[in-house]
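Long-time lurker, first post.

We've been arguing in lab meeting about whether magnesium ion would sit comfortably in this protein at all. Half the group thinks yes, half thinks no, and nobody has a model to point at. So I'm putting the question to the forum: if I give you the sequence and the SMILES, can you give me back a predicted structure of the complex? Inputs are below. Any interpretation is welcome too.
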Amino acid sequence: MNVLLIEDEKITRISLANNIRKAGYDVDTADDGEQGLQLFKKQSYDVVITDLRLPKVNGMDIVKYVKEHCQDCEVIVITAHATVTTAIEAIKLGAYDYVTKPFSPDKIIGMLEKISQFRSIIDENKSLKEKLKAYEHKNIIGKSPEMRTLLKTIHTIATHEYTVLIQGESGTGKEVVARAIHDCSHRKDKPFIAINCAAIPEPLLESELFGHEKGSFSGAIQRHLGHFERANGGTFFIDDIDDLPEPLQVKLLRVLQERELFRVGGSEIIKVDVRIICATKVRLKDQVDKGLFRGDLYYRLNIIPLIIPPLRNRLEDIPDLIEHFLSQRNSRDKLEYFTKNVYKKFLNYHWPGNVRELENIVERVIALSDINKSSDLLFDGASDDIEVNQPYEDDFPGLKEYITQKENEVIQWALKLSKYNISKAAQLLRVPRSTLRSKLEKHELEQLVE
Ligand SMILES: Nc1ncnc2c1ncn2[C@@H]1O[C@H](COP(=O)(O)OP(=O)(O)OP(=O)(O)O)[C@@H](O)[C@H]1O
Ligand SMILES: [Mg+2]
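Top reply:
Settle the argument with this. Predicted structure of the protein with magnesium ion, as tokens:
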């Protein structure tokens, strides 16, 4: 830390400066206010220690000047007993602290140590924030730990050439993530081409992917470039890869291995330089196990697996997403409709359509809010399909777990009613006391009655 000491009393100045140096800080000295300010203007200091009563420019003006010109620079004022009230004024102006004369140099050294510690925490915080910022991506909203990890991975893998397999439920943002990988890669100025295998009729899919030569089939009136060739130099995103028919899986494997292809009806080898990103809503490994997807292709695709968690596992991202979707549509003023009650509803919902479903709700609110001003009414209409606690397949409990859970609940209920008297609780539950005892052990509830 760099310290500037402004003190007109020679002995105090010299001895304090020596002590500060001994404590490991750099220090410049000035013997009047004017010289002090000149030094301050020339160099940057972390701390200014100034006497309040000084020739030429007084200490108070120094505090004012320093705090006006450098928010981060701390000021310690030295004052005689008679001017303590002025010292307090100085603190109001932003000074860090004051010492009254006579003082022990240790007192000032202690303050410098505190300032130094505080600075290192702030610096650390700043660099952590910068690191986090470096991973941010303008189109991917989400500060939940899951999304932060995902963003970090995106940035790490973007610069590599490996094939990426993105898995996630419908509407979780697989395409957004694929685009983010492209945007962060050195291919960013080249094309990003996306195709959805489920949306293209099977007979057309081959020529869409690989292109065809003129006359290769009836209707092929001219040469057609496939998406692989159009994406050359850039990224090719293949969505719903599990829907790719087996013969095309073989062809894709060849592209991945050899980086070359034949157009439909063509014999010329076409070299392609494309990064491939695939996505699927299903667990592709299960499809492989069931014999529905080629294992060799799966392992080629799954070099970097990315799993996007469903929205219900990162509910804390909802407020930021809502703000983002409203801002995108210049409708931030509609934020008022997302009341506490609405959020409560959102937090209990399972979001089967994930982020896309949330985006649709935001859109409906924007559209309907002009007609209907009451937030509660609006949401009754806007989210009819939101049933609180709607069961979702993944979360569906097995019968055993369900019964155990209910047993636990009813036991706790009986205990509460009987004021934790085990005999009374057993009576309420209509079971022998010994049965209740063993149940309490099973549910680890014994401590409630002991
Ligand atoms: N983290 C996110 N931040 C901002 N917007 C998001 C995010 N995730 C998804 N979206 C938005 O939600 C919508 C759906 O995203 P996307 O199309 O990428 O999902 P998907 O997983 O590819 O869906 P599908 O499985 O139906 O193909 C898009 O409008 C996208 O912009
Ligand atoms: Mg998609």
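For your lab meeting: Residues 174-175, 239 surround magnesium ion (ligand 2) (CB under 6 Å). The chain has four domains: 2-124, 145-307, 312-382, 398-448. Whichever side wins, do check it experimentally.
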